[in-house]
Design the sequence.
């Protein structure tokens, strides 16, 4: 390391770049911190230059007070100003200026610009950036691997990466107790507060469906066709995240799900660009803005989280639906030339906040994928983080000056180093850095970042690489100012327990889930408003989850379960269900005890079903192995991803015999001069291969119910889906069909009982058959031939029924139009 890397970064060298970094994408200058007083009421700043001399603590007119909280940290209240928090064990002391209290984070006994909460965020960022070393910035450029050990006692690994300067930590412990997570957050802040410049820890989470209030996920939110619900959900969850010490959401997922087989469709807002745009705008607004008691937007505040929308420039068009976490899914393809369409939810949605004065999503996560084109129309054939074309679009064309972070695990050998496998980790980060990336996801060691700095000295000179580090350092630290972490990163454990998942939020979340339930079929008014009277008798078949192997390589035994809590079902119905045999015949578990096999069920007999009014089969959409779908690792063979439950053989006229994308591999060909070695494109086609959904037995349960119910009984199928599905295998046998995307199965009970009227609409198309799936183009939204049921209804985008029939309202009028093809924002 050359000696200059130990010196403070020069603002003179980086002035131009720093001003760009500080401009952000916001519509107005944000408040300096999340806990700042409303604009115009912050106490005035004394004239003079920083660092400033301070007063004797407690002298003169004192405008602050402090008290020790029950959690052990000190709370400092400034009259008409910011409330501070610090740990008495961190070594940090208070200083006083103009009668107000400030934290002496760098322990120099003076008031520095970044310590002065009266200054705006840009001024504070500029001041601390001028004091940071390259090592400081290298630590900020790291985003930790998933952390699941969250207690008040930090692990050795956590202490190690904090000691190395890492300051962005991913809390992946959603299932852990709320109090533990809050205590862990406080412990992290107390540990780092006395180090160096006192840079706090920014803790993040992926979007959560457990351990917080039960709002619909993105796909279900899209089914409501109501962006105001997305805003409400995001705002409530932001409050709960902040209560646990979490200041960044790694979301929302803003990809356009134009490819129905993609395993991550369930995290998107569907395949319509306009609906996805509006939902993303609302969700980011709800996450980033703090609202007062009357619902007025206050901009950045104590209940704000930074939104990191993902995965730029849209990861939806994976070839044949394969997922880019794996080498077999690393290529996005654009046979319909619709690359620009995938930008719409980002540039017209997440970067154009009409419901929040924060203006734009604060951060963006890049995708793993390579955008395939043999002529490199979309840039070099490398993953998005390394792509000058893709990151250049973001930085230069669309003027995004917030944080760009890579997706997790793209640096180390043997990880998702798509297109840059031949580079060293240091060279990889240098390439990403020079493309415009700021931060590296899922990596705890700064060594490759410091290697990249040395590479930069050789490649572009020390002045230029210092300036480039300065630019990213300013962006990264500014995010901490936006949500108030420098002033008070601590949380109240008791308040966290009261806020997270509270009864009011749970009720509101379930009400929102209710609005997402879709009714696709309702022959003979099978589902109608409750009329009172005796409880109906309903057969609810048990469902089988087959044996599987988890990501750790452990065998997960098969299991038979009822898809709803029997207590919940009994509230609505007299329930008839299946029984298990006394002896199981499945694979023995680790203790040698046999586990349930599929054959170990005793289905309810015709005689037992004779008095049933309804059968309610609650199933999942066809399962293909999640992110691992599309490839058989045991045989190294590409296989189809199927949207039907039964066996699908990919031999139709629309199945590609040659894949669009593929690696360049060594191939031997014979010619008159002998056998020659040449480079040829790998063929990833699965033509002729077959696949059966791992939950094909769900279809068996539907058909069993249909074949064994009495003539007067009605068959209702409820599909709790994460992807589109093909209804053809059961629709003719069903009197009614409900669907929901990741909702609580209890809602299907309420819908059948007539407790509420379904109002949801399809945010995506349901294909007619697998030939329709093979014919549609991966990058083109809403181009699939849709299923038509026995009643003549087409299961197209924006279709849904209520008790009165096909829904035709303001939502369908707005969104059931031809899909957008290009962003309204054309860039600079």
Sequence:
């Amino acid at each position: 390391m050359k000696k200059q890397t130990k010196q403070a970064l020069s603002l003179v060298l980086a002035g131009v770049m720093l001003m760009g970094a500080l401009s952000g994408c916001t519509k107005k200058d944000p408040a300096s911190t999340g806990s700042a007083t409303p604009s115009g009421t912050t106490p005035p700043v004394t004239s003079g230059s920083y660092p400033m001399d301070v007063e004797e603590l407690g002298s003169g007119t004192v405008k602050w007070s402090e008290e020790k909280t029950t959690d052990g940290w000190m709370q400092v209240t400034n009259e008409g100003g910011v409330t501070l928090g610090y740990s008495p064990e961190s070594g940090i002391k208070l200083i006083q200026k103009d009668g107000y209290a400030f934290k002496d984070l760098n322990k120099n006994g003076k008031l520095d610009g970044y310590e002065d909460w009266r200054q705006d965020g840009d001024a504070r960022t500029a001041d601390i950036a001028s004091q940071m070393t390259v090592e400081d910035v290298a630590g900020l450029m790291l985003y930790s691997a998933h952390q699941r050990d969250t207690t008040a006692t930090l692990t050795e690994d956590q202490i190690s990466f904090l000691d190395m300067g890492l300051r962005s930590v991913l809390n992946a412990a959603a299932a852990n107790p709320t109090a533990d997570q809050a205590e862990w957050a406080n412990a992290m802040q107390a540990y780092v507060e006395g180090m160096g410049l006192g840079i706090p820890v920014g803790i993040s989470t992926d979007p959560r469906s457990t351990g917080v209030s039960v709002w619909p996920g993105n796909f279900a939110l899209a089914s409501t066709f109501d962006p105001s619900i997305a805003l409400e959900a995001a705002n409530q969850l932001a409050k709960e995240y902040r209560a646990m010490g979490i200041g960044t959401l790694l979301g929302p997922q803003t990809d356009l799900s134009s490819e129905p087989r993609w395993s991550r469709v369930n995290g998107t807002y569907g395949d319509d660009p306009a609906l996805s745009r509006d939902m993303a705008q609302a969700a980011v607004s709800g996450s980033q803005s703090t609202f007062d008691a009357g619902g007025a937007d206050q901009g950045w505040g104590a209940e704000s989280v930074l939104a990191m929308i993902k995965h730029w420039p849209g990861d939806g068009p994976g070839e044949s639906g394969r997922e880019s976490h794996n080498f077999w899914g690393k290529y996005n393809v654009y046979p319909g030339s619709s690359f620009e369409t995938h930008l719409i939810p980002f540039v017209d949605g997440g970067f154009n906040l009409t419901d929040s004065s924060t203006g734009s999503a604060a951060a963006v996560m890049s995708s793993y994928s390579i955008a395939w084109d043999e002529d490199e129309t979309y840039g070099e054939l490398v993953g998005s983080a390394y792509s000058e074309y893709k990151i250049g679009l973001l930085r230069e064309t669309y003027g995004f000056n917030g944080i760009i972070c890579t997706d997790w695990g793209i640096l180390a050998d043997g990880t998702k180093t798509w297109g840059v496998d031949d580079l060293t980790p240091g060279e990889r980060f240098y390439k990403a850095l020079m493309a415009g990336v700021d931060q590296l996801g899922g990596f705890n060691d700064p060594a490759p970042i410091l290697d990249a700095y040395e590479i930069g000295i050789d490649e572009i000179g020390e002045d230029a690489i210092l300036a480039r580090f300065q630019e990213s350092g300013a962006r990264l630290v500014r995010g901490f100012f936006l949500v108030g972490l420098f002033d008070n990163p601590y949380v109240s454990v008791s308040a966290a327990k009261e806020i997270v998942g509270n009864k009011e939020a749970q009720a509101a979340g379930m009400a929102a889930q209710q609005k997402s339930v879709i009714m696709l079929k309702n022959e003979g008014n099978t589902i109608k408003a409750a009329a009172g009277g005796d409880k109906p008798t309903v057969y609810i078949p048990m469902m089988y989850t087959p044996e599987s192997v988890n990501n750790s390589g452990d065998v997960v035994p098969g299991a038979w379960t009822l898809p709803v809590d029997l207590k919940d079902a009994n509230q609505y119905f007299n329930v008839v269900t299946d029984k298990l045999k006394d002896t199981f015949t499945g694979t023995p578990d680790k203790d040698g005890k046999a586990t349930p096999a599929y054959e170990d069920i005793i289905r309810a007999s015709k005689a037992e079903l004779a008095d049933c009014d309804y059968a309610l089969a609650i199933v999942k959409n066809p399962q293909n192995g999640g992110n691992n779908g599309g490839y058989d690792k045991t045989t190294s063979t590409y296989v189809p991803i199927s949207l039907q439950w039964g066996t699908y053989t990919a031999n139709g006229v629309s199945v590609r015999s040659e894949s669009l994308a593929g690696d360049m591999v060594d191939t031997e060909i014979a010619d008159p001069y002998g056998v020659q070695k040449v480079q040829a494109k790998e063929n990833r086609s699965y033509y002729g291969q077959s696949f059966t959904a791992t939950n094909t037995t769900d279809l068996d349960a539907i058909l069993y119910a249909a074949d064994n119910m009495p003539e007067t009984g009605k068959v209702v199928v409820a599909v709790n889906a994460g992807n589109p599905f093909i209804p053809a295998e059961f629709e003719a046998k069903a009197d009614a069909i409900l669907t929901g995307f990741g909702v609580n199965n209890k809602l299907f009970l309420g819908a059948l009982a007539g407790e509420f009227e379904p109002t949801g609409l399809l945010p995506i198309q349901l294909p007619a058959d697998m030939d329709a799936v093979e014919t549609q183009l991966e990058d083109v939204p809403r181009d699939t031939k849709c299923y038509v049921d026995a009643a003549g209804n087409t299961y197209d985008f924006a279709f849904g029924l209520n008790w009165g029939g096909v829904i035709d309202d303001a939502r369908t009028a707005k969104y059931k139009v031809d899909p957008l093809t290009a962003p309204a924002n054309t860039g600079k």
